[in-house]
Design goal:
By secondary structure, this protein is of the alpha/beta class. It contains 18 helices and 10 strands. Helix 15 links the parallel strand 7 and strand 8. Helix 2 packs antiparallel against helix 8. It binds adenosine-5'-diphosphate.
Length: 605
């Protein structure tokens, strides 16, 4: 619970207000208990004496003094103003105490609302910050669903337990203690009896809650799977439809979703059992107390008003006790959820700046891969083996090879999306793991195969995090990427929102925007994953021209799919199953009858 409280620290003031409101609220509720007794005495016209004859009091407690004062006051009222008038007073007082109680109940919720939402907001912000920090290797399709489930359902869970914390910390104990004190004062035996009954029902309900918690943990995990499938469906819509695989994908989704629903049904049934069960146990307790207490009244050990007030106090305990147990349940559930969220927040960031990382501002001579091997954490075989490769400044190196040969993996090692497993990558002679990550990545521009665009304006998609980019710079970059013409033809020019993932643009336009983005940054090193998707020859020509401009005077590592790029490269590196099998310029490679010539022959078909 302390762990949960830590998240409240920025909201101390609001929280304090909420707690104070809660205290006041319970105060009003507790006060209403002794008020009831004179009311009943009035009604039944019992002569003025506070407690029943046999309820012998050991010491005069504070409550007793208060109650005597109240009773005395009402007796006076009856004497001076008559029964009717006194009745009116008591009823008025009852209304007033409940007005106070509910007013403060609302106030406490009023102060609590920004606290809950603030804590949840902070948690979500931290989660996304963490996601942005974690290495790419952390994420897989299954993890994505799990992440979404944590960021939505689990955080929500924490939210609902917050309410429980505040209630259980401030409100309920006071109400319970107040009522208990009153009951103890009225009749210790009756109270002992009532406690025993409550204990029994508490145990029964508690067992139920335990089972519930286990199941709801399973449910959270299952929700992650369902969400992962949903995300996969959304991401693969084009392929799913294209391959007429709707039914297949739907069946996959339905299977998991049905399992989730079945689990939820079991949880619901169990949870729904709690309320009828506790009501029944409650009435059993009340009936027993009624039987026990009424007998005391019959035998003259207690007056009827005292007994009824006792029942009222008991009733006042039931609700808070229920709340308290519900709150403790929801707190435990919330803590479970918080654990899942915190586990993610505590995930080690394997790719980060080393102690005393060097700053680097410029690229002077060469990048060198020295005996580099790499294996994905969950893979059986290495994706790259013993790669030796030098990329001198100003040269263009093309990577070719069949799909799965390791081209993207090799390119991903350069900006440290992954770290090498063996060997090292040197930038101007310094191991890139010893450079500041931010500096290293600032030296590189990345143009990926799928043009990755964001649901924002054209301008922001080009500037993309470069806050000091002027409009003139952006336009110049767009011109250089042959994108300016189509941008100004858009309804709002550079301010046009391009829709989710740039769906409002054509493939060629999307690529030119990403090229403009790289041009604006003007990085010395370029990592280019050429698009494989075919463009019509007109766009192809424009994109090629833009790429040509982008590559000029730059050092580039190009995952090449097009012959035209390959022919211009200073060196072509042919990868096969993670190893370099051929290297050289186009002409010399064509003279060997190796993999490269085969690839070219295939393309020429
Ligand atoms: P290419 O870009 O040449 O098509 P990749 O570099 O994408 O090849 O893949 C090289 C090898 O690494 C392949 O065998 C592929 O299955 C494997 N691989 C790629 N990404 C991952 C990953 N995230 N986890 C495990 N294995 C991967």
């Amino acid at each position: 619970m302390l762990r949960l409280l830590r998240y409240f620290s920025p909201y101390k003031r609001l929280l304090l207000l909420a707690v104070v409101s809660n205290l006041l609220m319970s105060l009003f509720l507790v006060v209403s208990i002794p008020v009831l007794q004179p009311f009943l005495q009035l009604l039944f016209d019992v002569p003025d004496k506070t407690a029943g004859g046999a309820t012998v009091l050991k010491e005069a407690t504070g409550i007793r003094a208060v109650e005597q004062a109240i009773s005395g006051y009402f007796a006076d009222l009856v004497r001076t103003q008559g029964r009717e008038q006194a009745l009116l007073w008591v009823c008025g007082l009852l209304v007033f105490t409940f007005l106070g109680k509910n007013l403060f109940r609302y106030l406490s919720l009023y102060f609590l609302a920004p606290v809950r939402n603030g804590v949840v907001r902070d948690l979500r912000n931290r989660l996304v910050a963490k996601i942005l920090e974690l290495p790419l290797s952390y994420f897989s399709e299954a993890r994505k669903g799990d992440l979404i489930s944590r960021a939505s359902a689990d955080v929500q869970e924490v939210d609902s337990s917050i309410i429980g914390v505040v209630e259980s910390v401030a409100r309920e104990p006071i109400v319970i203690l107040g009522s208990l004190a009153f009951m103890l004062y009225v009749s210790p035996t009756l109270l002992g009896f009532a406690m025993l009954l409550m204990l029994f029902s508490g145990l029964v309900i508690g067992r139920l809650g335990l089972a519930l918690r286990r199941q709801s943990k399973d449910a959270q995990g299952n929700l992650g799977v369902v969400l992962a499938l949903l995300e996969e469906t959304l991401g693969g819509l084009r392929i799913i439809k294209g391959f007429n695989a709707q039914r297949w994908q739907l069946a996959r989704y339905e299977r998991e979703n049905t399992r989730y629903a079945a689990l939820l049904t079991r949880i619901n049934r169990r949870r729904d059992l709690a309320s009828p069960l506790s009501e029944f146990l409650g009435i059993v307790a009340v009936a027993t107390i009624l039987w026990f207490g009424a007998r005391q009244v019959f035998s003259g050990q207690m007056t009827a008003p005292t007994f009824i007030t006792f029942l009222y106090a008991f009733y006042n305990i039931i609700e808070p006790a229920k709340h308290l147990s519900a709150a403790s349940y929801s707190i435990r559930k919330g803590l479970g959820a918080l654990e899942r969220v915190e586990a993610l927040l505590a995930e080690p960031v394997s790719i980060r700046d080393q102690e005393g990382a060097q700053s680097v501002q410029a690229f002077e001579r060469a990048i060198e891969f020295r005996g580099v091997s790499f294996q994905y954490p969950n893979a059986e075989a290495p994706a790259l083996k013993g790669i030796d490769l030098v990329i001198p400044k100003g040269k263009i190196i093309a990577l070719v090879g069949a799909s799965g040969a390791g081209k993207s993996t090799l390119a991903d090692l350069l900006p440290r999306f992954y770290d090498v497993v063996e060997g090292s990558i040197l930038l101007d002679g310094v191991d890139i793991r010893r450079l500041r990550l931010r500096d290293l990545r600032a030296l590189m521009g990345i143009v990926s195969q799928e043009a990755i665009l964001f649901n924002d304006t054209v301008r922001n998609n080009i500037a993309f995090g470069l806050e000091d980019a002027s409009d003139a710079d952006i336009e110049a970059a767009a011109r250089a990427a042959h994108a300016h013409e189509f941008i100004i033809a858009l309804p709002q020019g550079y301010d046009t929102n391009i829709g989710e993932r740039g769906t409002k643009l054509s493939g060629g336009q999307r690529q030119r925007l990403t090229i403009a983005r790289a041009l604006l940054r003007n990085p010395p090193i370029l990592i280019l994953d050429e698009a494989t998707s075919a463009l019509d020859s007109e766009s192809e020509k424009i994109v090629q021209a833009a790429l040509h401009r982008l590559l000029k005077n730059r050092t580039a590592l190009v995952i090449a799919h097009r012959l035209s790029t390959v022919q211009h490269a200073d060196e072509i590196v042919v990868l096969d199953r993670g190893q370099i099998v051929e290297r050289g310029r186009h002409d010399s490679l064509m003279q060997q009858s190796g993999i490269y010539r085969n690839l070219v022959a295939l393309q020429a078909l």
